[in-house]
Amino acid sequence: MIQLQNIFKWVNNGANRIFLLKDINLEIKEGEFVSIMGPSGSGKSTLLNVIGMLDGFDEGTYNFFHESVHKLKEKQRSQLYKQYIGFVFQAYHLIDELTVYENIETPLLYKDVKSSERKAMVADILDRFNIVGKRTCFPHSSAAASSSW
User: Fold this and answer.
1) What CA–CA distances, in Å, run from 46 to 36, 51, 53, 94, 137?
2) Quick check: 131 pLDDT over 80?
3) Model pTM?
4) Looking at residue 92, what is its pLDDT?
């Protein structure tokens, strides 16, 4: 499913090249769970951003479901990303201008989930986490912050 071969990513600092990723080879099969561990500054986030198609790389090949990601146009990469990839960020990146309901609904809009199905899914999540009463709150409000949200 995911195959990285000889991936390099660098930044240039004057005449110096600073490697963020150096000769990364990785294969992850469908259904496999993988942990990426290492000290701070070792390239974990950079690697995840490359795998997640949020960032590019300078050398190597990246195949996702046998598609050469590095050769795809932005729109094609975006389609793959929307269909197969999800991120849970450390700082969960809620959108302050959207309500709790809208923050939950947003990824479903990107995946083109039908309105009725989307409403049912959001209602299920709100119910499952016992935050139905918070659905119209904004993330920064004290009402939303006081829940397990």
Assistant:
1) 11, 9, 11, 21, 34
2) yes
3) 0.65
4) 67
pLDDT, averaged across the chain: 88
pLDDT band at 16 (very low <50, low <70, confident <90, very high): very high
Interatomic CA distance for residues 108 and 104, integer angstroms: 8
Q: Which of 11, 34, 36 is nearest to 21 (CA)?
A: 11
pLDDT tens-digit map of 53-73 = 988 999 999 999 988 998 888
Residue spans of the domains in the chain: they are 2-84, 100-145
Tell me the sheet residues that pair with 2. 28, 64
Q: What is the DSSP string of the chain?
A: -EEEEEEEEEEEETTEEEEEEEEEEEEE-TT--------TTSSHHHHHHHHTTSS--SEEEEEETTEEGGGS-HHHHHHHHHHH-----SS----TTS-HHHHHHHHHHHTT--HHHHHHHHHHHHHHTT-GGGTTS-TTSHHHHTS--
Write out the CATH class of domain 2-84. alpha beta
Q: Specify which residues 16 forms β-bridges with.
A: 13
